[in-house]
Amino acid sequence: MTAIPSPTITLNSGHDIPQLGFGVFKVDPDETERIVSDALEVGYRHLDTAKIYGNEAGVGRAIAKSGIAREELFVTTKLWNDDQTDPEGAFQRSLEELGLDYVDLYLIHWPVAERGTYVDAWKGLQAIAESGRARSVGVSNFQPKHLDAILAEGGILPAVNQVELHPAFQQWELRDYLGPKGIHVESWGPLGQGKYELNELPGLQGIADAHGKSVQQVAIRWHLQEGLIVFPKSSSKERIAQNADVFDFELSDDELDVIRKADQNRRVGGHPDEIN
Ligand code: NAD
What we know:
Blueprint: E1 8-10, E2 16-18, E3 22-23, H1 29-42, E4 46-48, H2 56-66, E5 74-79, H3 87-98, E6 103-108, H4 118-130, E7 134-140, H5 144-151, E8 160-164, H6 172-178, E9 184-188, H7 204-211, H8 215-225, E10 229-230, H9 237-244, H10 253-261
Helix pairs in contact: 1-2, 1-9, 2-3, 7-8
Bound molecules: nicotinamide-adenine-dinucleotide.
């Protein structure tokens, strides 16, 4: 099985991550093994799951069946909010579900700041990273105030912050904060989760037509050229393949600019301050 020609990004941990991966949020646990097997066959080598998705076991079965060498894969999972008081126990359970002896990236899923547990949870993730069972650790849905709180503790720097980011919600302020710190941005909901039509945004359809690509492919290409790490989800093998067919064209600076100007500060998912 040939891997897609995704570029890699070197994280501040020294480990490389394929910039384009495959996400499995809302993939039915009963279908996960088949769908992830499709993605691996298409050539994805980076998989993004989470304990709360309930499908780590299916991801693990697809990996085991694929015969792909473990070191060729990059696997991310996440610490759920209710487990912030026991990151070590939750991490062990995730490893067992996945059938792996290490993950490439382990993230705190949400700060859930009102609970007051994320700073200690971060110390737990640092210990897991030091043990080598997570090659890199990071956070998700953290705002600058949450990052400031964990950075004040010193120790390992989060490798990434995985946040909602798509053409209608480009998160420039957060990206400007993270960039100089060497914390890479992962875009969740890179296609707006299908909650709005990408071709409603000014200029997107014209760019897609000019390249003979879909607006979804243009959006994925935009994330890649912006230096973002991205893992669109689809349950259909055809779309899984389409979403990886983004390495035979390039957006010009003018086209990137058109997409930048399409930002509407339009969140489609939950606000980190409201998830508690
Ligand atoms: P997404 O933006 O990837 O959108 C997925 C939806 O877009 C699909 O259900 C489908 O309706 C549509 N779609 C996909 N490919 C298409 C195509 N080629 N043509 C037309 N429509 C297409 O949304 P997502 O799944 O929420 O985000 C991607 C991944 O990010 C998730 O699977 C998960 O791994 C991660 N995620 C993380 C968080 C977090 O809090 N950390 C939250 C949400 C998602």
